Amino acid sequence: MEKSIRQKIREIVGREHCSDSREDLILYSYDAMNRRYLPDMVAHPQTALEVSRLLKLANERSFPVVPRGAGTGLTGGSLAIDGGLVLTTRRMNRILEIDPDSLTAWVEPGVLNGELQKAAAKYSLFFPPDPASMEFSTLGGNAAENAGGTRAVKYGVTRDYVMALEVVMPTGEIVHTGSASIKSVTGYDLTRLIVGSEGTLGVITRLLLKLVPVPESVGTMLASFSEIQSAARAVARIMSGRVTPSTLEFMDRNAVECVKAYLEEDIPAGAAALLLMEVDGSPSVVEEDAGTIEEACYKEGALQVKSAREADERASLWTARRSLSPAIMKIKPLKINEDVSVPRMKIPDLITGIEKLATRHRLTIVNFGHAGDGNVHVNLLLDPDDKDEVSRAQEAVRELFELVVSLGGSLSGEHGIGIAKAPYLGIELENSAIEVMRKIKQALDPNNILNPHKTFDYAASSLERELVHRHE
Predict the structure, then answer these.
(1) At residue 412, what are phi and psi to the nearest 5 degrees?
(2) 221 with 198, same domain?
(3) Does the pTM of the predicted model rise above 0.90?
């Protein structure tokens, strides 16, 4: 990056709000995918106008700009793979307004998900999307990746709660999308186009989010099964019935072993899988729904179904679930985590197929995730020094994606494509669909300035891609 460009960036955001020192660049060279690409400069704008001026400069002087929230992404979406400018939302971090009457909140993109949860709770409201990283991931990043979480089975994902946006387009125009009105079909739905676009089509500078009243009562249950397939069939039975749990999480035998230390509950001997489930609503509804779910679990051969009656019991169960990702690293030091998604009635077929994959490729695979909406995290655990094992895992990943698509599923349920899954995009999408996406990108970003090579047009070597451990 030329010296004159660096000087102009300093003039736009202020010398104290940007840096090109090597120490600072290293801090912004990686995300949770843990691969490193050094940017040329980092800037921390505070207003949409500053973002606009930076993007106009980038188009004039031809350098890439990579938007970045907290860097918690798992697929490399905030990596500066071509150098250029990393543009953070660190200083755009205000909750502008919470309106308890309209059940909405105006926020800036750098607000942490957990901060909004705490603020909304003062009005007996909550923001349903709750990714595992909610305490340190930003709402702008959640929107860019269309983040989900444990409550998605009942409440949906981030796109279902973004009503309107202020967005700076790749060429620098400031655009307002959506409406504060519940119903609006005026023109194309630009809000949904931006949400989930992984920072390739615009930089979000404000969001209008829908909030939901906190339920009156919550019931939590832990069911154990002697066979993984039995647990998977229980998921299918529950979801085909008249009860929609607010949470339905799945853990296989290896996952259970990893979190036993966090569980105060006694797990029956021979348990090969657990289902962690919640229902919410009025006390009478919670009691009835919990009974229906318990019955469904026993019909599929549950060894035990226990209810968490007290707040500390519920907290213990959720501590165990949220500790899963780091806990499984104790088995082997390298992890490949794929967040595949299938129609939930196909979960038994998915689990059976994964077991065959593990046997065929002689791999340790740990499965857990949001089974209620078909989103299963498939973790391949490896020894990074065992090149043969790494090679087998590469083959298994492709076969996993092919299996998922054959079941009517998707390569990613919530982590996005970024650069990690870009080489596999063609397994799920037809060339014609990918070409339409390229045309949209070209129309909005003719100079390919904003977050280039993400989602498509990136082909990492398989060895480079897999020698990375990723955390759900």
Answers:
(1) -140, 130
(2) no
(3) yes
Residue 212 in tokens: 């939901």
243/238 Cα distance (integer angstroms): 7
Other CB atoms within a 10 A radius of the CB of residue 184 amount to 13
Residue 113 exposed, middle or buried by CB count within 10 Å (0-12, 13-18, 19+): buried
Beta strands in 100-216 (DSSP E): 104-107, 125-126, 162-168, 174-178, 203-210, 212-213
Asked if residue 132 and residue 70 are part of one domain, the reply reads: no
Q: Which residue, among 317, 290, 286, 318, has the nearest Cα to 305 in the 3D structure?
A: 290
Amino acid present at 144? A
Classified as helix, coil or strand, 359 is helix
Residue 315 domain boundaries: 217-322
Q: What is the pLDDT of residues 229-261, one digit of tens each?
A: 899 899 989 988 889 999 999 998 888 888 776
Per-position b or e across 433-462, b if 16+ CB within 10 A of its CB = ebeebeeebeebbeebbbbbbbbbebebeb
Do 189 and 225 belong together in one domain? no
Give residue 18's pLDDT: 98
How many Å separate Cα 69 from the centre of its chain? 13
